[in-house]
Amino acid sequence: MNNLWLLAQQQAEQAPSTVPALPADAQEQAKTQVPSDPNSLSTPKQQPKGLFGDYNMLIFIILMFVVMYFVLLRGPKKRQQEHKQMVQTLKKNDRARTIGGIIGTIVEIKDDEIILKIDESNNTKMRVVPSAIATNLSTENKK
């Protein structure tokens, strides 16, 4: 620690204590220099604007909302319309699979329920709501 203190004292003794003054010619020259643009000292330089000027962020936000619309709203709405159309085209004796994976033959279709025949030997029937039908296997086999 003593070595460090001695080194600091030695450097302090060698360093000049005052800043040398500028020669008289340099001081006059510094005072008489006038900037070419009088406003350059008072106002900072403006950054170059982008392609659309100040509207870059606004355009970016609008584009984000458009993408969000197509991803979050339009996709599920389109799938819902396709499912509704598929349920409306169901008819008696079509084979259908439910969202639970049960496969059966449609026996009867009412407004708010569909009756599926699951087992031919025991004549087991099951009632489901139309939204529970995942696919129409009769039309998938034809494609």
Describe this structure in words.
This protein has 143 residues and is of the alpha+beta class. It has a domain at 89-142: SH3 type barrels. Helices cover 43% and strands 18% of the residues. It has four helices and five strands, in the order αααβββββα. The chain has helices at 2-14, 24-32, 56-88, 137-142, and strands at 95-98, 103-109, 114-119, 124-128, 133-136. A five-stranded antiparallel sheet has the order 4-3-2-1-5. β2 (103-109) and β3 (114-119) form a beta hairpin. The N and C termini lie far apart (90 Å).
List the defining traits of the structure above:
143 residues; 43% helix; 4 helices; SH3 type barrels; alpha+beta; five-stranded antiparallel beta sheet; single chain
Largest sheet: 5 strands, antiparallel
The CATH class of the domain at 89-142 turns out to be: Mainly Beta
What is the SS-derived class? alpha+beta
Q: How many strands appear in the DSSP assignment?
A: 5
Order of helices and strands: HHHEEEEEH
Strand content: 15-25%
Question: What is the level-2 CATH architecture name of the domain at 89-142?
Answer: Roll
User: What is the averaged pLDDT score?
Assistant: 79
Helix content: 40-55%
List the helices and strands and how they pair.
Blueprint (H helix, E strand, L loop, with lengths): L1 H13 L9 H9 L23 H33 L6 E4 L4 E7 L4 E6 L4 E5 L4 E4 H6 L1
Antiparallel strand pairs: 1-2, 1-5, 2-3, 3-4
